[in-house]
Amino acid sequence: MHGTHDDGEGLDPGGAARLLARTERDARRQFNLSPPWITAVMGVVILVAYGALWLSTRDQHPYRGPSLGVVALVYGAVAVAIAVSAKVYRRATAGVSGPSVRQQQAEGVAILVSFVLGSPVLQGAAKHYGASDAIVYGVIPAAAPLIVVGTTVLGIAASKADRRQFGAALAVVIAGVVAAFAGPSGAWLVAGIGLFVATVGYAVASRPA
Amino acid sequence: MTADSLDPVIHAPARLRIVATLAALPDGDSLSFTRLQDMLELTPGNLITHLRKLEDAGYLKSTTTGNGRGSRTSIALTRRGRTALDTYTDALRDLLGGL
After folding, report:
1. Chain B interface, mutation test: which of A24, A32, A90, most B Cβ atoms within 10 Å?
2. Which among A9, A102, A187, B57 has most CB atoms closer than 10 A?
3. Where are the domains of chain B?
4. Can the peptide bond before residue A35 be classed as cis, meaning omega within 30 degrees of 0?
5. Quick check: A34 pLDDT over 60?
6. pLDDT band at A99 (very low <50, low <70, confident <90, very high)
7. ipTM for the complex shown
């Protein structure tokens, strides 16, 4: 239990400096929305999901799309990632109120809308106009989320002048663009590698000094 | 410069930890009394005593919403409090020749 001292008697400057540094570090850790372990979870989810999608489609000639089992695995992995992220967010922001929390919520809605609507709308339109399965179930679902969501995050990062987030989002958009030209199965591989590199890169760049 | 030159309002373990914790939040954000108490592991009475001293100095602003058991108190560092912590940190650096 701390807080038995009512004044600074007995607190020398060195002790104060250590206490200040320790408190700042603990507070940043407790308010942190992206602790290192969540990056590890996300990295595993990305590798498992995109790896499974690529492995299940790489030998398809002609391309038919991922099997139902793989799609279920991917949805399960995404559900785990969302649940873990939500728990971390709730814990980090418990008791916190103010403009930054409202901004994070607005950013979350923008990202969710772009994720939920971006790819399915394009897939639906492509299917409607008779595009092949390679486009509808390969290129678009692999590349479009990275381009659409990445661009959304790019705008958010630019508005906050957040260089690290901007760099990571730009890497995701570039990966999406490359994936769009990597073929229906190769698109999953390129998208997975790009997303993994951007996630890990952002985590490394965001490490406390 | 000596240790006496350090701001006495901040230069106390509990108050230093309160100010440093609130300073880790983005400018303008508030923290609930209960979360702050959990983070610092202070008794409610002890925390209230230190918060009052910091509020009297103009370093904190507390806001209570609701009534009775449903009431919620939020605490935020004021601009003056953030400046005071910066000044305190600079003074510590001078005393120690760099943190």
Report:
1. A24
2. A187
3. 9-96
4. no
5. yes
6. very high
7. 0.90
> What is the Cα–Cα distance from A146 to A175, expressed in whole angstroms?
7
* pLDDT of B99 over the 50 cut: no
Asked whether residue B66 carries a pLDDT value surpassing 90, the answer given is no
Selected for mutation to probe chain B from A2, A11, A18, A20 (highest B CB count within 10 Å) is: A20
CATH fold label, B9-96: Arc Repressor Mutant, subunit A (1.10.10)
Q: pTM score, two decimals?
A: 0.81
Given strand B60-65, what is the order of strands in its sheet? A96-97, B30-32, B72-77, B60-65
pLDDT confidence tier of residue B74, bands split at 50, 70 and 90: very high
Q: pLDDT, tens digit, for every residue of A158-190?
A: 999 999 999 999 999 999 999 999 999 999 999
Please judge whether A27 and B21 are an interchain contact, meaning their C-beta atoms are less than 8 angstroms apart: yes
H-assigned helices in A8-98: 13-31, 36-57, 68-93
CB contact under 8 A, B20 and A8: no
Q: State whether B25 and A3 contact (CB < 8 Å).
A: no
Type and span of the H or E element at B75: strand B72-77
CA-based nearest residue to B85, from B57, B48, B56: B57
